[in-house]
Amino acid sequence: MNKSDALWRQCGTWIKRFNLIPANHPALKNNSKLQDLLQLLRNGVVLCQLANALDPNSIDLTKVIYFPPEDNSVEDFVCRNNIFLFVRSLVTHFHLDTEICFFDPPCLYEYQDIGKVFRSLSALSWSEASQKFGIPGFPAKEHKLEKKLETEESLYSEVRSLYDKVGSSEDQIYSSSRNSGEESQDKIYDSVISPKQRKVGSLFSPKKSKRDHPIQEMIDTERTYLDNLLMVRDCFRDRISLLDADTKNEIFYGLDEMIHLHSFLQRDLSVCEKDVGRVLLKYLNQFSVYKVYCTKLSSNQAFLQNQEKSNPKLNAELVRCRLDANSSFPLSAHIVIPFQRLLKYHLMLEGILKHTDSDHPHYCNLILAKEAFIELNKEINDLKGQMEKDEKLIQADLQALTILEKVEKSIRCMHLPASSRLKEYGKMVRAGNLATHGHQGTADYAFLLHTIIIFATKPKILQHRFRFKFALKLKDYNIEHTGDCIKLTNTLNVFSSLILTTKRPSELRMWEHDLVECKSLIAPVNPRGHSLVLTNLPGKTCAHCYNKIVGALGQGYECNTCDAAIHLSCLPDISWCHMANNDDFSFRRFGSMMLPIQLQGDRGSMGSTLSLACVNIDNKDTVRELRQEWSRERENIPLEAQPWFAGNLTSSTATTRLNSLPLATFLVRQRGETDNQYALAINTGAGVKHIKIEYEKDAMAGTGLFFFTDTHKFSSLINLIDYYREHDLGEVFNYTHMKGMKLNSPYKNV
Question: Is the pLDDT of residue 750 over 70?
């Protein structure tokens, strides 16, 4: 078979036509392998984007979980969530045959049945929704699909066997294809500040020593640097009108102080009789302004670069400022120069020292100044590193919270204690297949958090949500690895042991490692008299290092005796609790935290199961029940978060927003300050039309009703919109351009 004719290559080419694969991705190269395409698809994100590209109504992209490719501790849950959203859309939205197109998520992300995945994608490529784009499906001859799948089965088996051998964490399958993409800006300093070549002096010019040249370079570049600071102030900061005062203060932090500092520094360097070390030491304390400036630099530069691309009006103003300044560099590059200048002082001093004898009267000041600037640079680098580390931690915590929220919604029959959320039990450490055997019951899936482990059963075929079975506090159990299983034994011997097993030994070792790590977190060795609780303490100051506990979760220890907050990493070095009885210290390990419990037969409180069980186009009762569940789920979303709600808009603004969007794109706007005054705006063949949504009080029910006409009234605005997304607007409006039209695409989704 021709290499380019391989089914998986045709699949990759088809997906590429929708601009969903970067041009430099390994899957598109001539020497690409099947693994390259599977790596791209396995977390389900591209598949969800593909369905959304075919029809924006097919998938709610807010339910898709995006996560770093290197974070594989919870990838089982993430892949399962995203792939199911795609598979569900094939059946319920694109109306493809369930028997042909449904595949269980592990068929893709564990490579259990790759043929099923390509069979589904092929069917989608030939579907009515896809053919509207004029892009041929694959394979080119649809009737040859099964033959091609049969021909490539040995290749699929090879990849599957490789996965079974190395597990989900090995680099052989999931090698990263990331490129740095960061552009260096090292040239700007040399272009703007570095001294230009001087003309050769006349024969009568005084001869300068080798030591004079680096000193003169420092003086000349100091003058040029000051000119650049003045230019940034006069041509950029003082002329930009489209940024508010707070944003400008952030971007140009300390600019006036730096201009003041370098004005006096440049003056004194010019008359210092070559004792530049003494002058720099004189103004050393004023260089502290650079500490804050440099720590803000990365975020300020990223903000400006983003605004230059996404805000045309601001970008036009910045271009005018550049023209006035006669600068070939954008503002985002100019704000880097102070940081680069600071890094040059110790290098220039070193250049002077090379030509200064140790007995020279200026030698000592040069040495002291050089060491001082090296120390200042180190301090700033440490601050920048800590800030970047804190920002990464915050982003990681925000992602952890997002995943916890998704997990919470994906487990049915689980009841959390009043006003509790899963985040109160700590971060999620691992999720995946883990079978249990014991008196508590049987389960085949587990979610490990810092303080508890939740056991559930995996979704049955054509279902999305896990079913809660039971949960355990890690503090109450000892962990023992006994060969081919893990044994959890109750510390009080109240219950018999719980046996945990996995399909692969490598997975079992990872579960054991993470269980032991979590247990050590909630029961640290030698707490030194503190009565500690592992909890969330964002913003509090650590009693040991006096730095803030950062992060969206901000996990650390809190002492119930002395109220001290302590970083997890600072625990080994803490001093004894000054309020504790050293002969009788204790460790409180979430003892008062109640566990989630199982709900019995309470479907109403569970929300939608997102189930596809028995979905059949001919089974109207099941489909109706499924749609009703989804409708109830949408009703729980606040009005402001609905993809079609635009807030308080004028009709002209709504028209402007919809004019360039596809037909049947719509929004709902608030017509005034009074409650329950709304209007529908929809793009039709005759332009954007505005329709008043009537409202009246239902005296008997004590609630309000929303409607267009008296024939159909609804208890909520959301119900009205849901109804007309399924029913013809021509039923209530006798206009030619409304015939056959439904509310198709909320404007936020287009």
Answer: no
Structural contact between residues 41 and 47, judged by C-beta atoms closer than 8 angstroms:
yes
In the chain, where does the domain assigned CATH 1.10.418.10 lie? 3-166
Q: Are 172 and 162 in contact (CB under 8 A)?
A: yes
Over residues 170-183, mean pLDDT: 36
Model pLDDT for residues 424-442, shown as the tens digit of each residue: 888 889 999 999 998 888 8
Task: Looking at 126-144, list the stretches that DSSP marks H as alpha helix, in order from N- to C-terminal side.
Answer: 128-131
Cα–Cα distances in angstroms (integers) from residue 224 to residues 195, 212, 280, 546, in the given order = 8, 18, 17, 41
- The torsion of the CA quartet 323, 324, 330, 334, rounded to 10 degrees, works out to 150
pLDDT band at 618 (very low <50, low <70, confident <90, very high): very low
Q: With bands split at pLDDT 50, 70 and 90, how would you rate the model's confidence at 580?
A: low
Higher pLDDT, 390 or 365: 365
Q: Are 655 and 734 spatial neighbours (Cβ–Cβ below 8 Å)?
A: no
Residue 626 neighbours by CB distance under 10 Å: 21
Q: What kind of architecture, by CATH, is found in domain 187-196+209-386?
A: Up-down Bundle (1.20)
Its CATH class, for the domain covering 637-749, is alpha beta
pTM of the model: 0.59
Kind of pairing, strands 477-481 and 486-490?
antiparallel
Element holding 291 (H helix, E strand): helix 289-310
The CB-based long-range contact list for 719-726 (8 Å cut-off, 24+ gap) reads 719/631, 719/635, 720/693, 721/642, 721/644, 721/668, 722/631, 722/634
Class of domain 3-166: mainly alpha
Name the segment(s) of the chain with CATH classification 1.20.900.10.
187-196+209-386
Q: pLDDT-based confidence at 188, cuts 50/70/90? A: low
Beta bridge partners of 466: 411
Alpha-carbon gap, residue 527 to 262, rounded angstroms = 51
CB distance 702 to 721 below 8 Å: no
